[in-house]
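Schema walk-through. Below, the input block comes first and the output block second. Nothing else is stored per chain. Lengths vary across the set, and this one has 212 residues.
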Amino acid sequence: MATAGTKTTGTAATATEAALGTRDRLVRTASRLMQRGGYENTPVKQLVREAEATLGSLYHFFPGGKQELAVAAIHFGDEEFAGLLRIGLAAHPDPAQAVEGVAVLLAQALEASDWRDGCPVTATALETIGRLPELQAACATAFANWQHLVAAKLLASGCPEPDARDLAMTVINTLEGAEMTSQVTRSRTPLLVAGRHLARLVASYGTASYGP
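--- output ---
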């Protein structure tokens, strides 16, 4: 996902990457390709070609090769997605409305990418389970970072920490599943429905436990 909560695709993505240094182009290109096809379906030759780099430059910046680059790409995707979360969560003081707003932002961004760019780490996370521990750990860190951002929003509203942590995990897990369904169905509806129900869940905790 693009940094300002928008998707950068096609010609725009190529132009943006071309304006960067070689290392940044490699990382961003790897993130985009892995987001769409995962780690195994991102050939090194295609990655280098689309990044307008060389194999020599890849191994110069990433002596560990494709796997080391992939870890950097996951961290980049983690921060991009976190940027979108920060924008959505900051848009409303009420956490329930903020969570629903995040779902709307995700739906808009996914549609803008022609339903290609969902979660930046899901495809890689699923295919690396039990095989590539460094990549799996980077993916797990990304999920934990996103949960932390949602939990911080809930904590700031007065939600007790145990509830905030559990709710944050539920929010991220639900949005992840809804985003994948929206990709498959090429529709905003799964994300928008998920956002509405998550908002009700968050609001119910606030009313029952610590609201006015």
